[in-house]
What does this fold into?
Amino acid sequence: MRIVEAARLITTGRIAPELLWQITSVPERVTIALLAGRTDLLPDSANTPTSAWKEMDTRCRTLVLRRAPAYVRRCLPGYIPSLSPFSAVAGMARANVSHPATAGVPHTNQYQAISLSSN
It folds into this structure.
């Protein structure tokens, strides 16, 4: 059974977590609990964010960082906040890039007329 599918079955109430814990490994249990946003389901060996992070392998870590609820991801040691496309840094980066259509045109004031004919 896929980890994401198992987390969905728990959140919808179709399967009891205790039944699922009998057939999964500890890293899978940690991943399923974090994906479901249910920190109460974490095993005793992984009841803190750091210990949960250490229990998971790379595949499970990337899955949790992509699919877990935001409040769970923010607590984990591997969380790196991403810049929103409307941030000031992204806006400054876009402002410094010239458009290909205006590559050879000298920069002028926005109210000043530009003559493209050569006189």
